[in-house]
Amino acid sequence: MIKAEEYGKTILANFLTEVSDITEYNPTQGVRILAFENPCVTSNNKGAGCEFELWDHGGDPKSESCWPDMMKDSQGVVIVFNASILSPLKEIEMWCSCFVQQQFLQNTPCQLIAHHKPGSGSDQGNPALAPPLNKLKLVHSNLEDDPEEITMEFIKYLRSIINSVSESKDREEMSIIT
Ligand SMILES: Nc1nc2c(ncn2[C@@H]2O[C@H](COP(=O)(O)OP(=O)(O)OP(=O)(O)O)[C@@H](O)[C@H]2O)c(=O)[nH]1
Ligand SMILES: [Mg+2]
User: Fold this and answer.
1) Is the bond preceding residue 132 a cis peptide, omega within 30 degrees?
2) What pLDDT score was predicted for residue 113?
3) In sequence order, what are the residues at sequence separation of 6 or more whose Cβ sits closer than 8 angstroms to the Cβ of residue 2?
4) Whose Cα sits closest to atom 6 in ligand 1?
5) Is the CB–ligand 1 distance for residue 49 below 6 Å?
6) Of which family is this protein a member (predicted)?
């Protein structure tokens, strides 16, 4: 199994959830759970806040036996890869087949993030993904040059999760009634 170390997942997770701005490298062991709210994302029209948990998973193959448990109650999947690696295709495909194409995550919003580490340039090229992966939304994150872009995209992504959760609740209610 491929290990996606030092791509910047933790740095990005800390930035997006505003949990911390430490940039020292500390390999993620297993999973870190970041609980957060985003003031721009509310759960209904009345503006009630919404609590999220972001599970920052280091991708260590040693933790593979825990993946089914991690996926069980997930309502979204974010796959981060290093934008400066020319062909991360195999790796993205591997993570998608493990996490996204699983039966229980099929209706779950998935976001691919090409993370640009400082000094690695800001080439906005996209990997040529084969179907069905080319349907996944791909965004770029560059915290040095354009932190706004990924901040806005993350808000959109959180909103898509709220919509998907409320749609699946509606479907469940309909299936009870009919
Ligand atoms: N300043 C800065 N440093 C970054 C950024 N992205 C990655 N780095 C550097 O890369 C190192 C590794 O980033 P992490 O976020 O810890 O990598 P990771 O993907 O979580 O790695 P694992 O937990 O081992 O899988 C960081 O300690 C930083 O030194 C960034 O956007 N800004
Ligand atoms: Mg990490």
Assistant:
1) yes
2) 92
3) 59, 90, 91, 94
4) 8
5) no
6) Belongs to the small GTPase superfamily. Rab family.
Q: Which atom of ligand 1 is nearest to the CA of 8?
A: 15
CA distances from 73 to 58, 63, 85, 140, 170 (A): 19, 17, 31, 27, 18
C-alpha distances in Å from residue 77, one per residue of 88, 107, 110, 154, 174: 18, 11, 5, 12, 26
Give first-to-last CA distance, the chain, whole Å: 45
Secondary structure of residue 49 in the 3-state scheme: strand
Domains by residue range for the chain, with CATH:
9-177 (3.40.50.300)
For ligand 1, whether the C-beta of 116 sits within 6 Å is no
Which residue has the least CA distance to atom 14 on ligand 1? 8
The ligand that comes nearest to the alpha carbon of residue 59 is 1
Walking along the chain (178 residues) 10 residues at a time, the average pLDDT comes out as 72 93 83 93 82 89 80 88 74 79 72 88 74 84 94 96 90 88
**Positive or negative: CA dihedral 81, 106, 70, 166:** positive
Q: Rounded to the nearest whole angstrom, what is the distance from the C-alpha of residue 11 to the centroid of ligand 1?
A: 5
Q: Ligand 1 centre from 122 Cα, in Å?
A: 16
Contact status, residue 166 vs residue 172, Cβ threshold 8 Å: no
- What is the rounded distance in angstroms from the CA atom of residue 2 to the CA atom of residue 98? 12
